[in-house]
TrEMBL record:
Annotated compartments: Cell membrane
Lineage: superkingdom: Bacteria
Ranges for domain Histidine kinase: 241-447
Record keyword Transmembrane helix present: yes
UniProt keywords, alphabetically: Kinase, Membrane, Phosphoprotein, Transferase, Transmembrane, Transmembrane helix, Two-component regulatory system
Every HAMP domain range: 180-233
Matching InterPro entries: HAMP_dom, HATPase_C_sf, HATPase_dom, His_kinase_dom, HisK_dim/P_dom, HisK_dim/P_sf, Sig_transdc_His_kin-like_C, TCS_sensor_his_kinase
EC assignment: 2.7.13.3
TM stretches of this protein: 12-34, 151-175
Molecular function (Gene Ontology), one example: kinase activity
Catalytic activity: ATP + protein L-histidine = ADP + protein N-phospho-L-histidine
Protein name (database record): histidine kinase
Keyword set includes Magnesium: no
Organism: Sphaerisporangium aureirubrum
Length: 447
């Protein structure tokens, strides 16, 4: 909650500062533009006063002090004769020197400038417009007006400040409200995740209706929870099955050892060892298979090398005493890239499974179908129902027909074989067969 508030606060602050800066820049540009426009208008007004005075000077009708100037156009005005002496002026400039010293040089005989510290007011600057009239020489008429402040009018800057404050507040509030609404699904997701425990992985986070980034986040979280639930369920089942498998030989060993301790004189040590040894071998086999599964689960690196798959299978067949008839077709030159130890383990598990369930014949066939190599191991036993062909690849799974501890395996051979195949970018499946079970291994051929 604090983090979400922090995000809302940071976004609100950023938005408010950004909008405030934009408003300040806009206000400065607006004030500058308004100042330029008003200054131009004021200069035209001052020039108009000078033109009116120039009209009377041209006709020789001016008097001192200068009338007649309309009251709405009254400005400080001076008339300077060709000798540079002020001969007429408005009342506030009587008996004062010229307000400026520049004269027009342009063809239209009009010029303007900003004059500071003149006879008009030593503490202010004025816009002075100079106009020349020819009447027995060049007469100069100066008219002036105080320079406008940069804010033009006090009400304008007050209005801009108030507008900026209101606009920034409104945008910041809107941004905070929008961010809060956008992050509300995140709060719901976090709350739901806080209630999910390892014992209650069936719950899922709420998925918002708008298909935005938070919608995709919620979907990803739920998919992750689905995978996590599957993994934990598989782990629980694996631990339960492993405990069950380990308990059987351990119980047998304990029973035999306790019986020997109760009657040590009647115990035949060689017979005791012969009785205990199968249980020890079963424990050793379970431990070895569990270690192999652990290495496969963590993705231990493979020592990949070119391997003649036909030669590898033939070698493994020689180490097995196959009961019944063996039919094999293993052409040379089917080269795959893989780990020899793991591929040998895979082949051994498939052959042991076939030998365990075959009635009389095991058929081993290797084919080359670029870009894959296909190894087929088929027995003529009772087969596997189609609805259980994936079940046999679950760890510690044995079908009902193979529940006998003497005839059945540990339920780890086929899962290990499939995981080895997948670690080599291959597949291991059970396919249709007229009789028995037909395991098909596909591995990429070496390029």
């Amino acid at each position: 909650m604090l983090e979400n508030r922090s995000i809302r606060g940071r976004l609100t602050l950023f938005t408010g500062v950004a909008v405030g800066l934009l408003c300040i820049v806009f206000s400065i540009v607006m004030l500058f533009t308004l100042d330029r426009l008003e200054t131009q208008n004021l200069t035209k007004e001052v020039a108009a006063v000078g033109e009116l005075t120039a009209y009377y000077v041209d006709r020789g009708e001016f008097v001192n002090p200068l009338p007649p100037i309309p009251r709405d156009l009254v400005r400080p005005v001076q008339v300077v004769n060709p000798q540079g002496r002020v001969v007429a002026a408005t009342r506030e400039l009587q008996n004062k020197p010229p307000m400026a010293s520049f004269i027009p040089e342009s063809p239209n005989r009009v010029a303007s400038a900003v004059v500071c510290g003149s006879v008009l007011d030593s503490g202010r600057c004025h816009i002075v417009v100079a106009q020349q009239v020819y009447r027995d020489g060049n007469w100069t008429i100066y008219s002036a007006a105080p320079v406008l402040p940069f804010y033009v009018y006090p009400g304008v800057i007050a209005l801009l400040i108030a507008g900026t404050a209101v606009f920034v507040t409104a945008v910041a509030y809107g941004a905070r409200h929008t961010v809060a609404r956008s992050l509300s699904p995140v709060d719901a997701i976090r709350t739901q995740l806080d209630h999910i425990r390892s014992t209650d992985l069936g719950r899922r986070v709420p998925v918002p209706t708008p298909k935005d980034e938070i919608y995709r986040l919620a979907r990803s979280v739920n998919q992750t929870l689905d995978r996590l639930e599957d993994v934990l369920e598989q782990q629980r089942r694996f631990c339960s099955d492993a405990s069950h498998e380990l308990r059987t030989p351990i119980t047998a060993i304990r029973t035999q050892m306790e019986a020997a301790l109760l009657a040590p004189d009647d115990t035949d040590l060689p017979k005791l060892c012969d009785a205990v040894l199968p249980s020890v071998e079963r424990l050793q086999s379970i431990a070895a298979n569990l270690l192999t599964l652990t290495r496969l689960d963590v993705g231990a690196p493979l020592e990949r090398q070119p391997i003649d798959l036909g030669a590898l299978v033939a070698t493994e067949l020689k180490t097995h005493q196959i009961r019944g008839r063996l039919v094999q077709h293993l052409p040379p030159g089917v080269i795959v890239q893989g780990d020899r130890t793991q591929l040998t383990h895979l082949t051994r598990n498939l052959l042991q499974n076939a030998q365990r369930h075959a009635t009389s014949t095991i058929t081993v066939t290797l084919r080359r179908h670029p870009p894959i190599a296909e190894l087929e191991i088929q027995d003529d036993g009772t087969g596997i129902p189609p609805d259980q062909r994936e079940t046999v690849f679950h760890r510690f799974t044995r079908l009902d027909t193979a529940r006998s501890r003497e005839a059945g395996g540990l339920g780890l051979g086929l899962p290990i074989a499939r995981q080895i195949a997948e670690s080599h970018n291959g597949t291991l499946t059970i396919q249709d067969s007229p009789h028995g079970a037909r395991f098909v291994l596909h591995l990429p051929l070496r390029p």
